């Protein structure tokens, strides 16, 4: 078990909270879409269908992020709800779109994690400030 924790720390330890939230949403969206992807023939989904699926799966991932990061890690649901929603919707739609184009269900979860980490990192770098565990903005002055 210590080796697993060391591996997780090495892979995800330096990521921002936004990137981790995106990874969670990407994993959920990728896994669930990967389950139904074999049922979708290459020409059966239209762009509105892909958008709807991405939004629904993004919302499911958003709820999980609110529970894990907002409640379990005690960052506060109100403090992370809006930024996490933007992250989740972008991650969900991009994950579904890329997985539909790739048509490789075995890698759907991994693709979702990578897309989620990327989207979360970009959003965090350009738009998000720091939030401490009490939901207060952290301007970096201590």
Walkthrough of the structure:
- The protein is mainly α.
- It has a domain at 47-135.
- Helices cover 72% and strands 3% of the residues.
- It has 5 helices and 2 strands, in the order H-H-H-H-H-E-E.
- The chain has helices spanning 2-12, 17-36, 47-72, 77-102, 108-126; strands at residues 130-131, 137-138.
- A two-stranded antiparallel sheet has the order 1-2.
- A hairpin with a 5-residue loop joins strand 1 (130-131) and strand 2.
- The radius of gyration is 16 Å and the shape is globular.
What's the layout of helices and strands?
Blueprint: H1 2-12, H2 17-36, H3 47-72, H4 77-102, H5 108-126, E1 130-131, E2 137-138
Helix pairs in contact: 2-3, 2-4, 2-5, 3-4, 4-5
Shape: globular
SSE order: HHHHHEE
Largest sheet: 2 strands, antiparallel
In total, how many beta strands? 2
In the sheet with the most strands, the strands line up as 1-2
Overall pLDDT: 87
Estimate percent helicity. Answer: over 70%
Please report the distance between the alpha carbons of the first and last residues: 36 Å
Strand-residue fraction?
Answer: under 5%
Rg over alpha carbons: 16 Å
Q: In DSSP terms, counting alpha (H) and pi (I) runs of 4 or more, how many helices?
A: 5
Low-confidence spans: pLDDT under 50, at least 5 residues?
none
């Amino acid at each position: 078990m210590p080796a697993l924790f060391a591996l997780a720390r090495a892979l995800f330890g330096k990521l921002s909270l936004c990137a981790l939230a995106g990874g969670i949403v990407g994993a959920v969206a990728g896994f669930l879409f990967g389950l139904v992807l074999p049922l979708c023939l290459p020409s059966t989904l239209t762009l509105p269908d892909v958008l709807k699926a991405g939004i629904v799966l993004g919302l499911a991932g958003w709820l999980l992020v609110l529970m894990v990061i907002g409640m379990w890690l005690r960052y506060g649901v109100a403090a992370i709800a809006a930024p996490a929603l933007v992250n989740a919707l972008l991650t969900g739609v991009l994950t579904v779109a890329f997985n539909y184009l790739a048509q490789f269900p075995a890698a759907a979860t991994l693709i979702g994690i990578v897309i989620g980490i990327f989207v979360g990192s970009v959003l965090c770098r350009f738009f998000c400030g720091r939030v401490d565990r009490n939901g207060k903005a952290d301007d970096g002055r201590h």
